[in-house]
Amino acid sequence: MTSTPPRRRQRGWVVLSALLMALAFLPYDRLGGWVEAWLPAALVLCAPAPYLAAMACGGGFRRTLLFAAVWWMLGSVWLLDFDPEFGPFAWLAAVGVGTGLTFALGLALAVIRQRRGAAFMLAWSPVVWTGWEVLRTWTPAGLPWFAPAHAFWKLPVFYQIAEYTGYFGLSLPIAVVNAGFARLLLGDRGGRRELAWTGAGRCGWAWCRRTSRWRRRSPARPMSCSSGTWR
Fold first, then answer.
1. Inter-residue contact 25 to 72 (CB < 8 Å)
2. How far is residue 91's CA from residue 17's CA, in Å, rounded to a whole number?
3. H helical segments located in the chain
4. How far apart are CA 59 and CA 11, in angstroms?
5. Per-residue model confidence (pLDDT) at position 195
6. Maximum Cα–Cα distance across the chain
């Protein structure tokens, strides 16, 4: 990796990452068409990357607090209009629980970086992120909102893998893509490898699913005899 970016730029990466995560889950139903389907998916494919790049530079506690606070405060703002009386309390509860759960992610990334280095942290960040999403569904105060895989709900070609692995099977390749983008932000050209392999794998999976679905739905062609030959 190249030299460490300035701290101001790292804080900007954290804020940008939180804003992109919040924007990915806004209601785009009024736009309709391909925008409603593809815009959230495109946002989550690059949203966590700036945060991962900033965490690779160090300073996990403050950056995780900034990332979690901006993300959950903006992402949960719809609760304010959900109920005029109890909406603010629900919003505060969601922000508090979400920020607390996000600290588990930041703590894991910070510990890995301190013990094994930034490159090792970025390499294993997809596994850490996916494990954090699993943890969010198991804890007593679980809050499995805003998982990156949820942004693909309008794209059945991609979320077919959830039939076998749950949405965690889609979150893992999304996290791999973001780890590749994070390495590119830090000037490491090795991030192209993650992006290439993940893109090839997802396209191959989508092609297999389309092919198998087409074969199941295609009626059997009856055999006929013309000119004395069967075909």
1. no
2. 21
3. 7-24, 33-44, 48-56, 60-75, 79-82, 87-116, 118-138, 162-165, 168-185, 191-217
4. 10
5. 52
6. 82
Query: Whole-angstrom Cα distance, residue 21 to residue 155?
Result: 18
Q: Delimit the domains of the chain by residue range.
A: 7-213
Query: Is residue 14 within 8 Å of residue 67, measured between CB atoms?
Result: yes
Q: Is 93 exposed, middle or buried (0-12, 13-18, 19+ CB in 10 A)?
A: middle
CA distance 41 to 172: 14
* Number of other residues whose CB lies within 10 A of the CB of residue 158: 20
Mutual angle of helices 60-75 and 7-24, in 10-degree steps? 30
Question: 226: helix, coil or strand?
Answer: strand
For 99, the token pair is: 């920020």
- Specify the pLDDT at position 210: 52
CA distances from 52 to 168, 174, 187, 192, 196 (A): 19, 13, 14, 16, 19
Alpha-carbon separation of residue 231 from 215, 223, 226, 227 (angstroms):
19, 6, 8, 10
Residue 206 CB-density burial (10 A; 0-12 exposed, 13-18 middle, 19+ buried): middle
Tens digit of each residue's pLDDT (9 = 90 or more) over 137-179: 886 767 888 999 999 988 888 878 888 888 888 999 999 999 9
pTM of the model as a whole: 0.79
